[in-house]
Amino acid sequence: MQHGVGTPMELREMGYFLAASRTLHFTRAAALCGVTQPTLTRGIQKLEKELGAPLFAREGGTTHLTALGRLVQPRIEDIVARSRSVQKQASLHLRLQGSDLRLGVMCSLGPQRFGALLGRFRVAEPGVDISLADATPDRLAELLLQGELDAALMVQPADYHERLKPEPLYAERFLVACAPSHPFAERRSITMQDMDGQAYLSRINCEHRDVLREHLSAAGARLISACRSEREDWIQCLVAAGMGVCFLPEFSAVQSGLVLRPVDDAPLARQVCLVTVVGRRWSGPLARFVEVLRRTRFAAPVANDQPHAPRALFR
User: Angle CA(149)–CA(152)–CA(158) in degrees, nearest 5?
Assistant: First the structure.
């Protein structure tokens, strides 16, 4: 007999023993357990064989526990009770986990694209608890592989990990953001060379930072570092206040007062993807979320003096 929580067969045999120890009548004990009397008897005999001595003694028409039976009865009751507690906790955990949607969102991803979608999903699935984790692409990939996330909305400039499956959602360009008072605001577009000498506010978590730097270098443009931050909202606020300019994904602007301008000679773009783990079974909430996502045509952002046109995004 195991000293911890037993196997299903051992637990069933222990249940037979406990029923018989309470009734001291094998036929009634079998009825309580929903089995035949021979099945209950064989189960108890297996326990007795493992323990090396009888658990019950029959004298005339009566049955009673042996000394060994009385000794092990509290222990077996404890094992069965703890097993039921573990099963109950596991069942509760699975029910709660089954109602969760753990979604990773890249920190530079604008909320406008998904806010309305998540709202509709919540209305359609009110029992699903949505948890959003904001992180960099590398960290999101780690959380996915560790099983901490069901899926992630993210961009990866390099190849994805072999265990991750990206499903393209939409593409968005990198534009230059400036204040309405900035000279760039008077133009329809700019070039990379126009960035030379500009005070620049660096978005530390920009996943395409190295790519943008290469394009600037190729154009002979050197930036003047004015500020850097991991906070996307701070960078946007400082740009709107006229402190400098920055490259910004076209659908990520949330700060009012920003003016976005395309770059003629560097049509940079990033592909936003829904990323899941290859071979991992989807939870019910994730499957329903992906179904809603695949039916969605994302609305274009409200124009903010931006010269770019809406485009079809989801395929």
Answer: 120
- Provide the 10 A C-beta neighbour count for residue 143: 16
What pTM, to 2 d.p., does this model score?
0.61
Which residues, in sequence order, are bridge partners of residue 153? 105, 274
> pLDDT, tens digit, for every residue of 25-74?
999 999 999 999 999 999 999 999 999 999 999 887 788 999 999 999 99
Q: What is the average per-residue pLDDT within 169-191? A: 93
The residue with tokens 């976005």 is 260
How far, in Å, CA of 103 to CA of 118, rounded?
11
Cα(220)–Cα(131) distance, integer angstroms: 44
Half-sphere exposure of 294 (CA within 13 A, CB side): 7
Total H helices, total E strands in the chain: 9, 11
Q: Catalogue the E-assigned strands of the chain.
A: 56-59, 62-65, 100-106, 129-135, 151-154, 164-178, 199-203, 224-229, 246-249, 259-261, 269-277
pLDDT in tens, 60-78: 778 899 999 999 999 999 9
Question: What per-residue string of b and e applies to 121-136 under the rule 16 or more CB within 10 Å gives b?
Answer: beeebeebeeeeeebb
